[in-house]
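Can anyone check this?
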Amino acid sequence: MRLSGKEASFLRPGLPGTMGCATLYTGKPFDLPELRSRVGERWGVLERMHQILEPPSRPTALSGHRWAYAGPFDPAAHVTACTQELRSLLAAAAVRRLPADRPPWQLLVSQAAPTGEHSLVLLAHHALLDGGSLAILLRLLMDEASIRTHAPKPAQMPPRPRVPVTDLLAEWHASSGRGQRLPPAPGECRPSLTVTRLDPTVMRSARRQPPTGRGATLNELLLSALAGAFPSCYGTLSSRPAGSAPLYARVPVDLRSTNEAHRLGNLSTAVRLPLPVDTDSPADRLRTCQRLLSAVNRRCQAHRAALPVLDGISRAAPWLTTALTRHMIQPDMSTAVCTAGKWRGGPSHLHGRRLIGVTALPPLPPPGTVNLDLVQYADIYTLTVVSHLRPDDSQLIADAVTGELTTLAAMSTSHVE
């Protein structure tokens, strides 16, 4: 089966395409045979988990990659233990490719943390699974999940929305105009990863901003904090000419309908937004981001309408998908991808071990760009920054984002006082 245009867009030259999600547990170390047994039981009925990537059989301009079934996956090959602790494992996973001779996913048991916690890290090629799929799979492993005794029926596809041509053209213009890029030059770029645990008191206070409004979502906070962080990290942004091209970020949006809540694959899109880097006040940046994000659901209707058409074009002319992808991932098209969300469901356990935290691993972005992912589980907020900029820029950006959130929280506290 030929890859969809969305899936094919993640096969980017020079980039591994590996993304992941880590879950952290208390209790004794995992028993590997027991874990493999559950993975085989719970994931073995899912067709997506058995698919491998087949390279084009003809020139890529005429023939794209395909999904093929090569037999049931082997839990012993996919579920393994490693000697790395969580952060070093994530840093190594971000820059390596998954084995090409089997379905492109792995479940790794990391070395126990010094404090005694144990982590499971689910890695997958982004062409196979999106972030929502990773969460679906990990929740399916939990003790509280209902056990599937047969393969789930395919979800009924929602009807394609009717969108005026003017809205489609407006969204294309909003998604494709050239913007500004961050320094340095691409030749100086190096991969870098930072994982930061955010203060829950700070996050609760920041979410009460602006004080006269409804409060802020995680997406709004992350986008506005990044808008403030970029000028503090790259001072040249504050002196750019008035009216020059904006700095753009993309915000992924899950397109799963209620009937598709458990469907695996790539059922998301990304809406591009101009970052308010020229706005001095953190509160004003947040209000601007709230206004921009309030239009996302409406803009996604254009994406829902256009994606089936683009898929048909991609299958007929794979070269067009390749050319479009190369254009859209340039650093002056999108400098950052900002993903934020909450782990759904209540308290969870895996073989009796209590889940105490969730960390996302965004894929390594193209040179000159950065990916940020903020996950909330209960009262634990974890920010992951994967940069492809100057060496160690992920730490610089993570610290600046944390500082922006702290400033917003202080403004909320002073208002209360």
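Reply from J.R.: I decoded it. The chain has a mean pLDDT of 87.
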